[in-house]
Every structure is written in C-alpha cells, then in structure tokens.
Amino acid sequence: MAQTKTISNEMIKNADHVASDAKRFEVISTVILGILAVVALLPIILIVIASFTDETTLLRNGYSFLPEMWSTDAYVYMFQQGATIFRAYGISVLVTLIGTVISVLMTTMIAYPMSRKNFKYKNALAFFVFFTMLFNGGVVPSYMMWTQIFHIKNTIWALILPNYLCGAFNIFLVRNYYANSIPDALIESAQIDGASELTIFFKIIFPLAVPTVATISLFTALTYWNDWVNALYYIQKPQFYGIQNLLIRIMNNIQYLKSGAASVAVGTGAISLPSNAVRMSMAVIGILPIVVIYPFVQKYFVKGVVVGAVKG
Fold it and tell me: Cα separation of 231 and 245, whole Å?
C-alpha cells in the first residue's frame, strides 16, 4: 500500500511538472509571437504615419514614427480624384467577387473527383493539374489566345479570366482536405440513399469544407485585388482600370508633373505635389479592404492550410 501511495505521489508530481512546463512554454511562445506580431505591424504603421507626414519633412528627415510636421495633403490630392477612385474601387470589388466565386467553384469541383479513391482517372487528372504548375505557354501565346480567340480585350472578363481563375496549388490544397477530413463512409451512405454526385458535392462535401474554402477564397481574393498585370496587357480603356492600375496611373501623372516642376493648388495655397506621401496613401488605400475582411476569415485560415497541406 505504501509503495502504491509513493507511485501515486510521483505521478502527481510528474503531472504537475508537465503542466508547469506546458504553462511556461505557452507564456514564452505568447511573448515571442507577440513581439513578432509587433515587428510585422511596424512597417504598416510607418506607412500610415508617412501618408500623414508633410512632404517637405519626408524629403528632409525621411520616414519617421514621430514626424516633425503632419499633413493631409496626400489624402486631399487623392480625394480630388474621388469619382475616378470610387469607380476603380467598384471595378476591383466586382472583379474580386466574381473571380473569387468562379475560382472557388472550379477549384473545389475539380478537387472533388481527384479526392475520390474510386475515380478511375484521378491520377491522370492530378498529373494534368500538376503539369500546369511547371509549364505554361508564355505571355505572347496567352495574349494571342485571349484576344484573338476569346476576344476579351477591353472587357471586364479580361480582368477575371487570364492567369488567376484556377490555380493548381489551391486544387491540391482542397483535394488533400477532402481526402483527410471527409470520411468515405459519408459519401457511400449518401450514394446508398440515391444522391447524385452533384447532390453529394453541394449538400455534403462543400458545406464540410468551410475552412479550406475560406482559405482559398482569401488567397484568390488577395490575388485578384492586387492584380495589375491583366489590365496592363488587356485593358486600354481607363474606365476598366481597377484600383491598383489607377494608383499606378496617378503616380505616373505625379511624376510627370513633378518632372516639369509643376505644382497644384491644394486647399487655399499652392504646394508641390506630395509624391512620397501619395505613395504611402496609395498603399493605405490599397490594403484597407483586405485589412477589414481578413479578421472574418482568419479563424478558418490556419485549419484550412494545415489540414489541406497534409498529403492524402
């Protein structure tokens, strides 16, 4: 009895040590991750502060967290482009929404048969998808195909279809999630009940794949929102410019005006164009929607990536 009591006491002590070590590790990890988070946020904070810094102060002292003089000249200049910026925002939002919805549907539907063990051609399909990660036709053949065969030049589809509509990486991410997280017995049960493949996909598979769907939706939305290449290749009409291309155009206009020693009136006085501050305000305007949206999908992000990245 005494020996049993001694063993029990030792087990309790060991458990206490393990709990203490776990608590200590949790505290240290939290502190380290907190420091890394602050370090990651510092550049963004600096960009926001620089966008509110006087242009002369930026040129004289460089970027600082505590500038000598604050100014809203950059945002006043951007506000003067208000109607154009709002239209470009609308184009970017429309392209991001349509492109993300179509891309997520195509990605999840292609990944579904690849995850099914009884699909005869799943390896051939996987090879075809993987091949696109290694090789592509190049810029010139792609341009000829989209403009001469599909005739999407100077249309909204030129910002949606080329390059980003369906990515191989996302397909494999979703396929692995299906294979590792959704049991085959669930699909077999639905087949016994007479459900078709489309019914199984939309009623069972897709709702159960919320974490990975949210993850690839974020990836795709970021890609479409930050894209400026498609407009550079396929768009010549400014009314189809998204926010990224419009900001580049505004920056080019500022550089052109500054090269001619031009100045504009902002408020009641004439000042030099705030080119450096405008760059920073452009960055703030460009990332603002993503900063607003990210917290709503962040809880799915880690689970979707970790589970989807495990080889099935």
Answer: 7
